[in-house]
Amino acid sequence: MSCHQELLARARALRPILAERAEHTSELRRVPEESIAAFQEAGFFRMLQPKRWGGYEVHPNTFFDVQREVAAGCASSGWVLGVVAIHAWQLALFPEQAQEDVWGSDASTLISSSYAPTGKVEKVEGGYRISGRWSFSSGSDHCQWIFLGGFAPTPEGSPPDMRTFLLPRSDYEIDDNWHTFALRGTGSKDIVVEGAFVPEHRTHKLIDGYLCKSPGNALNTAPLYRIPFGQIFVRSVSTSALGIARAALDFYLGVTAKKVGAADGSPAAKDPGTQLSVARAASKLDKSILVLHRNFDELMAYAERGEVAPIDKRVAWRWDSSEVVSDCVEVVDALFANCGGRALFTSSPIHRLFCDVHGARAHFANRPEKSGRNYGAVQLGLRSTDFFI
């Protein structure tokens, strides 16, 4: 059995267990410790970690297939797995000392994040001092380090210098303010920092990730680490929607196959409209997965040849990643509407799936409007305005 098959088999075995915990996960407002422990045991957090740190360095399609399967069991668990595990990939781009700081004593240490540059960054001797509040740090309760986005000060007239700043748990507080109706179990809480010092080696420049020329590339030379940061990150927050939509379709199939009309006793499965709804949902999901697999196959092919993927391709892939979430919303919405009044009860699994897929759609990386306009503009001969590609 290949590594891909083995990891996917582990995810499929966990899916029904995660489904049983899904409601508890929502009520807890974070992923249970036993689920995180199961992910650790299965090696899921090591999928994109460098081999020199005990990782597997799998093809991204393997990683995202596992995340999709986990999200089909529990959307919040799949979301946290994707977002937290992707950070092992980014840490591989940092200078060696930063990797030593995090993994030197325990290579299973996890990192959370909040990339929106909402804090204050001040240049000081040897590094930076940062303060402020960052929101939506999914899975932060389970992590001992964090990535925070911010703009490093630059001379007047110079281009912006957006960076990721790496901080240990002792340098920030978690504000438990995650009270939501969607993705409730992700524990995406606020992070508060009051004047923490971040040494230079614990920073990563966005432009280095864009150009695929990060300090860590000298150490971690596998093609996996020569793909653009923007491409792999956006997929970590869009892939869960595919798992949610799959779970909704499976639920609908299970219920509808046995359902009979209350008024006339006719089998719902024989209704032409029902049959067409199932066909459309299954086909839309299949096409989305095929497109996303193709995109990362192409992306990795460039990296394996030692090339950086061209901008027009990256713009298109960025659009595909965001648009797939809208497609998943359409799938779940249609199935939800066809479920009838029983879907309105909060005890119904499709009620939670309906909320969760809309929660996924709300993430800035999953809004297709900006990436769609940029994709269209580039095809019309204009320059890309998106550097997160």
Describe this protein's structure:
- By secondary structure, the chain is an alpha+beta fold.
- The chain has 3 domains: 3-108, Acyl-CoA dehydrogenase/oxidase, N-terminal domain (Butyryl-Coa Dehydrogenase, subunit A, domain 1, Orthogonal Bundle), CATH 1.10.540; 111-211, Butyryl-CoA Dehydrogenase, subunit A, domain 2; 227-379, Butyryl-CoA Dehydrogenase, subunit A, domain 3.
- Helices cover 50% and strands 14% of the residues.
- The protein is built from 11 helices and 8 strands.
Low-confidence parts: none
Order of helices and strands: HHHHHEEEEEEEEHHHHHH
CATH topology of the largest domain, anyone? Butyryl-CoA Dehydrogenase, subunit A, domain 3
Using only CA atoms, what is the Rg? Answer: 21 Å
Helical element count? Answer: 11
Structural class: alpha+beta
Widest β-sheet, arrangement of strands: 1-4-5-8
CATH class of the largest domain: Mainly Alpha
Number of domains: 3
Overall body shape: globular
Described by strand count, sense and barrel closure, the largest sheet is:
4 strands, mixed
